[in-house]
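Project standup — Tuesday

K.O.: blocked on the structure for the chain from last sprint. Re-posting the sequence here as requested.
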Amino acid sequence: MGVRVPPLALTMEPSKATVEDVTPVRKRLQVEVPASAVQAELDEAFQTVGRQARLRGFRQGRAPRSVLERFFGDQVRREVLGRLVERSFLDAVETHQLAVVGTPDIETETLRAGEALRYSALVDIRPAIALGDLGGLEVTRTAPVVTDEEVERVVEGLRESVAQLRPIEDRAVIESGDVVSVDLTSRLEGGEPNRREDVLVEAGAGTFPLALERQLVGQHRGAHLSLRVPYPADYPNAGLSGKTVEFEVDVKALRTKELPALDDDFARDHGRCESLAELRARIRTDLERQAAERADAGVRDAIVGQLLDRHTFDVPPSLVSRRCDALLASLDLRLPEGTERDQALAQLRTEVAPRAEREVRAELLLDAVAAREGIEVDDAAVASEIESIAAQRGQVPERVRALYERPEARAALHARLVRERALAHVMGHARIVPAEKHEDVARER
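H.V.: unblocked you, prediction finished:
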């Protein structure tokens, strides 16, 4: 039978807390909740449970404490313990003015009537950052140039995306560039086999490991191949890097790609332009915009890098760990199962940890800049950004607004906008040198 345990009384006797420095950004709280407060909260909780409980053989509200202890004791003590810890922890944080980040690691004793409750809480806190001079920063902005070759690569990619596959009937030998339909069974170093049917592989195109595609060239329809393909140590997928995969390949069919003619009709049908020249011009404009965005991002990253070089401070480990989790979640990972999966994830965490720490360090530093310079973002600016996000994603504004009604999502958006304004403030006092001008000045010297 479930019962509701009442919230803690607001008149709870104050707890005692001491703070121990573990590192500049990690503290250990030793908290003691007085025995009188523990007893009072347990008594009130059992009184409330007694009024609510319906037990056979007793009228409602008349069951003795010993019976309530037998039926509901564990539940009551568990919930009272949680609330005592939560309330006393918040009081301790406020009393000692700790800027806690992340989730505390709490070790507590068993809750016993008539005895004080003692527990320890290991917490990470925001570092105290002593901001120095923010002026005198100088970075070079690259001059993005879009070549005709880059434009043509995009055009060819568009042609490839709408290519038609036609069966090859007049030959059975595979040539480079053929699209081959295969049944494929792969096995990672003695692991369980993974079979896939009707996999399309373009011979020599780099979609699959090069050794596989290279060995398809010169084979024939109906061939069966047993291949061992070593993946390089720097292969992007950590689950495969440095490993050897055994492939059993059955060649089923050969096809050739037929690309559409590159003319004005192609531009109208697949580029939403009236002519091929207009399509190329639009592609060039898009590439130039993307290149300019990359150049701007490079400037921002360089400014942040110079700020970080000027400021040394400890970073809370829990924030770095949480950012590692976020970075890994953003990757399209294909990992093996079992212990190999754990090993691959551990390796990936090691690889992304420096990036995670830099990102957290930059955010903490920009927060400190915003605090010192009095940079704020009001609700109107947050609302405007939400509308912009909806427009960029092509989503219904109401749906995006509903997403940011969640306090944590809105707080994250607010924090991002504050940091962007803080960075803009720093960049406003920095010297941004165009690449050509920078080179001219260097030659003159």
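K.O.: great, moving the ticket to review. Residues 23 and 387 are 42 Å apart (CA to CA). The chain has a mean pLDDT of 86.
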